[in-house]
Write a structure and sequence with these properties.
The complex is a heterodimer. Chain A is of the alpha+beta class. Helices cover 29% and strands 24% of the residues of chain A. Chain A is built from 20 helices and 26 strands. Chain B is an alpha+beta fold. In chain B, helix 2 packs across helix 5. Classes of the chains: A alpha+beta, B alpha+beta. The complex binds FE2/S2 (inorganic) cluster (2 copies). The site of one FE2/S2 (inorganic) cluster has 10 residues of chain B, from loops.
């Protein structure tokens, strides 16, 4: 392969499959997750939620609940201020409604009581006087000029004249002359699609313990993807200083973006402040579905022109997303990601966000991208069918590559799309025969990847071991990867390193574990922190040897004399240097703080074989292969795990999962029985092929891998099902009744 | 209503606790007996994170009353390792990356152990159907199935 790179090539630790440091804890039940944490004197917190999709709150009478023996505090939004910052106000209003309830399940009030039974009884005693209002939950209905108004005057400056009152945001990306592009096409297809809202579906519900002192110092333990962001949001909402609130993240039982904000944490703090005691809140599964962030639902139009030999001449997408009852910018990411896989002369995407009476959207793995790319990849597939072209050849012909001006503006550096497409083409999966009622689908996927604020500290202990302190919750094995990169850089064994995730008082800011940023950005900061420690060690050794600091090099875990002094002294290992550190100047450590850039975009290609039962409309996934560029796979097991887990979530999205609202605007399937995520017997083995096209922005070439894999399954499955049944579907999820209807309509 | 006094056997040891009549076995394990290995993912029998063994049968402990543990043999994930020696399933789950977040892991390990005791040489499909009541949102199940097979082979050899 001719991928140029100036990144490191020979690895000793990176790229191996070592056991993760938290493995034993997690297989023995010793690991402590959100709900596993307790403190003495803790009260039980419970939240009262709206039964209405949309209603004015005329009054809340908490007097009876407050008077119930055993109740320690009752709070409503009146117990909080009104933050000036609009986005903070939205977060707060989502945690406790102010004036209006905006969706079924919106929190209205909360109690803290001595036990669960008392807390439940107290909730029943809170009297809320509502005046129901007309509601809207569908994105197309919400876009209309005469739609029920979810919130007044929330449009930002991007929204053009003439949009409906619920439109809060508009965006546009692209370049080139669409009309002349479409003029060159031999075939133009324009299709419309819808996708349902889905939930991240982490198995661990949100949970926290808040302990607020009368001196306005507070502690919060919670399951979160970002303790620093939780601190910033909660201290803002509670009106206390950031330094006075220490947030500690528990082990996290899945997040996928859904634990990047707060739902119960400010409420627990407000209860604890009022009660003068620690308060624990654990959400029920029903509440997780009703009130925590699902992803957006969408309605989209895509128009693509292609020549007879498969070249795309022009492409256009119009995306309408709803992100619930508060303004949401997710459509921006969809509009940027839609055509990222293609090298296009003429492309335009437009996006609108509309408010609806649904819970506030939260990030879900590559937020905004899966639906947009589903629509695009479906139209590309149909063009291939109609023009009788091989869908992989068409992707290869049009693929973005290094130097391509992307559809959303930037020019790509080294990217792995072509390599993944070629790997897919060579793979035997692509050439395996298919039987009756079976179909094969493929789709490209893309995610930007992020870097962000990162702070890492690394201590060389006097016994020759290494302690790494970082601030990003480990959501799928990142502590192993971070320890591996520290070991690699220092030249010590992996077992000598232990990585700890610390609380907000112990390190500088760390952005949330999101955007596939941790292995990239925390890894980068860890390598730089190790280099800082190496500089200190080389300095100490130079002094011992009485030579210039520049004449000491670090190789294979030891300081060695170099240049004219080469061979003059016995190398000193990390352990040798550490053992005498107190005599050479004291403890040795390195640290690094950065707002990391250069994350390096990520591409993947998925192949899916399905069989559709023409009697029932049920789809069985027979075979599935994921091809993805990881830059450099630090721990291949966990890279594969991300690829497999993302694929499984995407398969669920494509086939089963959806938020279903009744005419009354209430969520009808708030549980794992009716919101059905894939179970083991639904899925085949998910094969993986890791490509490594180094990211020039990382010393080891690492790219984030976590998000891209949820993107391709939607179109890969839809393309496979459409080919299996001989009729094109334009709607997700492709539940059996919908497939059956399509089959029957075809006749 | 008055609390109930319950005598049971927990991971081979005698154990006693009091619980409310409506209290689940899951809550009793977590809040009365201090064992937080069994997790509550749903409380309605749909996720399997609370799976424990009761008299050799797999149960969702969120659907069993604490009072039903009277006189029963309860086994949880905390009882799988013997001293320092991990159960082969536990070892295989670590060695083959069969967990990401790990919240589903205790329930899946208990369920898989029960399967291998009944069927030491299951097919992939048998494992997939046996574990169909244990949701995992992180892994896509691929590495879980492989780890169970590796542990099964290991146990057959041992
Ligand atoms: S908590 Fe018991 S099955 Fe989910
Ligand atoms: S590893 Fe996270 S749910 Fe299974």
């Amino acid at each position: 392969m001719n991928f140029q790179s100036n990144t490191k090539a020979n690895f000793k630790v990176v790229g191996t499959r070592v056991p993760r440091p938290d493995g034993v804890d997690k297989v023995t039940g010793r690991a402590l997750y959100g709900a596993d944490f307790n403190v003495p004197g803790m009260q039980v917190g419970l939240i009262l939620r709206s039964p209405h999709a949309h209603a004015t709150i005329n009054s809340i009478d908490t007097s009876k609940a407050t008077a119930l023996p055993g109740v320690k505090a009752v709070v409503t939004s009146a117990d909080l201020g009104v933050p000036e910052d609009e986005s903070l106000r939205d977060v707060q209003d989502n945690c406790l409604a102010r004036g209006k309830v905006l969706y079924d399940g919106h929190a209205v009030a909360a109690v803290a009581a001595k036990d669960m039974a008392t807390a439940k009884a107290a909730l029943k005693l809170i009297k809320v006087d509502y005046t129901p209002l007309p509601h809207v939950t569908d994105v197309d209905a919400a876009m209309k000029l005469d739609a029920p108004v979810v919130q007044e005057a929330r449009a930002d400056e991007s929204v053009p004249e003439g949009c409906g009152p619920n439109v809060t945001h508009y965006c546009e990306f692209g370049h080139g002359d669409l009309e002349s592009g479409f003029g060159m096409a031999d075939l133009i297809l324009e299709r419309s699609f819808t996708t349902a809202a889905t939930h991240q579906g982490y198995i661990e519900p949100h949970a926290c313990v808040a302990s607020y002192g009368t001196d306005d110092k507070a502690d919060l333990w919670c399951t979160t993807q970002g303790q620093y962001f939780v601190r910033d949001l909660c201290s803002g909402i509670l009106g206390i200083e950031g330094s006075q609130l220490r947030v500690t993240a528990s082990e996290i039982g899945g997040g996928f973006g859904g634990k990047t904000t707060v739902f119960i944490e400010p409420v627990a703090l407000a209860l604890s402040r009022k009660a003068g005691r620690p308060v624990k809140i654990v959400m029920s599964r029903v509440d997780v579905f009703r009130a925590t962030g699902p992803t957006v639902s969408s309605s989209m139009d895509v128009r693509i022109g292609m020549t007879k030999d498969g070249r795309i001449t022009a492409a256009e997408a119009k995306l309408r997303y709803q992100g619930g009852a508060f303004p949401c910018g997710t459509v921006d990411m969809g509009a940027q990601a839609a055509f990222a896989a293609y090298d296009l002369k003429a492309v335009r995407t437009q996006g609108w966000n509309a408010l609806t009476n649904r819970p506030k959207e939260a990030a879900y793995r590559a937020p905004g991208a899966p639906m947009a790319i589903y629509a695009v990849e479906s139209v590309v597939d149909e063009l291939c069918q109609q023009l009788d072209l091989d869908p992989l050849d068409v992707r290869i012909l049009n693929a973005a590559d290094a130097g391509t001006k992307s559809s959303y503006g930037p020019t790509f550096d080294q990217i792995g799309l072509m390599a993944t497409l070629e790997a897919a083409k060579e793979h035997d999966h692509y050439h395996a025969p298919l039987g009756e009622n079976q179909g094969r689908g493929l789709s490209c996927g893309f995610w930007f990847n992020f870097g962000g604020n990162t702070s890492v500290s690394l201590a060389i202990n006097s016994d020759g071991t290494v302690s790494v302190t970082e601030g990003n919750p480990d959501i799928g094995g990142s502590r192993a990867s971070i320890s591996m990169m520290a070991a690699e850089e220092l030249g010590v064994a992996y077992e000598k390193v232990r990585t700890i995730i610390t609380d907000t008082s112990s390190l500088g800011q760390n952005d949330v574990t999101d955007g596939s940023r941790v292995t990239f950005a925390v890894g980068l900061a860890t390598i730089k922190a190790a280099r800082a420690a190496i500089r200190v060690m080389c300095g100490r050794v130079a002094k011992i040897w009485g030579i210039d600091e520049d004449a000491v090099v670090w190789e294979d875990g030891a300081a060695k004399p170099s240049g004219p002094n080469a061979g003059d002294f016995e190398p000193m290992t990390l352990a040798d240097i550490a053992a005498i550190s107190s005599e050479t100047g004291g403890p040795i450590a390195g640290h690094h703080e950065v707002n990391a850039e250069g994350a390096g975009v990520s591409f993947g290609v998925h192949l899916a074989d399905v069989e559709v039962d023409p009697e029932t409309g049920a789809t069985k996934v027979l075979r599935y292969t994921v091809f993805q560029d990881a830059g450099k796979a630090v721990h291949p097991d966990y890279v594969e795990g991300q690829m497999q887990g993302g694929a499984a979530q995407g398969i669920g999205w494509a086939l089963n999962e959806e938020y279903i609202y009744g005419d009354d605007g209430r969520l009808q399937n708030a549980g794992f029985l009716d919101y059905r995520i894939p179970v083991a017997s639904d899925l085949p083995n998910i094969d993986t092929v890791i490509l490594e096209i180094p990211n020039p922005g990382h010393p080891y070439g690492v790219r984030g891998v976590g998000e891209t894999p949820i993107v391709p399954p939607l179109a890969a499955l839809s393309n496979a099902v459409s080919r299996a049944i001989g009729v094109r579907l334009h709607e997700l999820p492709m539940s059996p009744p919908k497939i059956l209807k399509a089959v029957m309509a075809k006749g | 209503m008055k609390n109930i006094h319950v005598s049971t056997t927990l991971n081979g040891d005698d154990a006693e606790f009091v619980c409310a009549p409506e209290e689940t076995l899951l809550d009793a394990l977590r809040n009365r007996l201090g064992l937080s290995g069994a997790k509550e993912g749903c409380g309605t029998g749909d996720c399997g994170a609370c799976t424990v063994e009761m008299d050799g049968r797999l149960v969702c402990s969120c659907l069993v009353l604490g009072a039903e543990a009277q006189g029963a043999q309860i086994k949880t994930v905390e009882g799988m390792a013997i001293g320092e020696a991990l159960h082969p399933l536990q070892q295989a789950f670590i060695d083959h990356a069969a967990l990401q977040c790990g919240i589903c892991t205790p329930g899946i390990l208990v369920a898989a152990k029960n399967l291998l005791e009944r069927n030491p040489d299951p097919t992939d499909t048998e494992i997939r159907y046996w574990l169909a009541g244990n949701l995992c949102r992180c892994t896509g199940y691929d590495k879980i199935i492989k780890a169970v097979q590796i542990a099964a082979a290991d146990m057959r050899g041992a």
